[in-house]
Specification:
Helix Hairpins; about 0% strand; transmembrane; transport; mainly alpha
Length: about 130
C-alpha cells in the first residue's frame, strides 16, 4: 500500500503540473477589450474545447502508461480504455486492475473529478466577463 501511495504522489504531481501549465497558457492568451467577429469567437471556442479534450486525454494517458509499464494491464489499448473510463469516473467494471493497483485505479477517478472541476473553473474565468 505504501508503494501505491508513492506512485500516486508522483502521478498526481504530474497531473497538477500539466493542468497548471494548460490553465496558465489558456488564461495568458485571454483576449482583453478586443472586438472580434463571431467567426473568430467560434474559432477561439473550438481551440479552447479541443485543448480541454487534449489535456484530459493526456492526463489519462499518463495513468495508462503507468498501468502498462507496471504490467497491471495486458496491453496499451486496454490500459488506455481502463484509464479513460476511470478518469471519467464511468468505471464499467469489465476491466479490473490486479490487487496491488486497485488503490491507484480508484484514486484516478478522484483525480479525474478534480481535474474536470479545475477545467470548469478555468473555462469560467476564460469565457467570463472580459473587462
Amino acid at each position: 500500500m505504501i508503494k501505491q501511495l508513492y506512485y500516486l504522489t508522483g502521478l498526481i504531481s504530474v497531473m497538477v503540473m500539466m493542468h497548471t501549465a494548460w490553465s496558465s497558457f489558456l488564461l495568458q492568451r485571454k483576449t482583453v477589450k478586443c472586438v472580434r467577429s463571431s467567426f473568430f469567437i467560434k474559432i477561439e471556442m473550438l481551440f479552447v474545447m479541443v485543448s480541454v479534450l487534449l489535456i484530459h486525454c493526456m492526463e489519462a494517458s499518463i495513468f495508462a502508461i503507468f498501468y502498462y509499464v507496471n504490467d497491471a494491464l495486458p496491453d496499451m489499448e486496454t490500459s488506455m480504455y481502463f484509464s479513460l473510463a476511470s478518469y471519467a469516473t464511468v468505471g464499467y467494471g469489465d476491466v479490473l486492475l490486479p490487487e496491488g493497483f486497485r488503490l491507484t485505479g480508484a484514486a484516478e477517478g478522484l483525480v479525474g473529478t478534480l481535474m474536470v472541476s479545475w477545467t470548469v473553473a478555468t473555462l469560467i474565468s476564460y469565457f467570463g466577463d472580459k473587462k
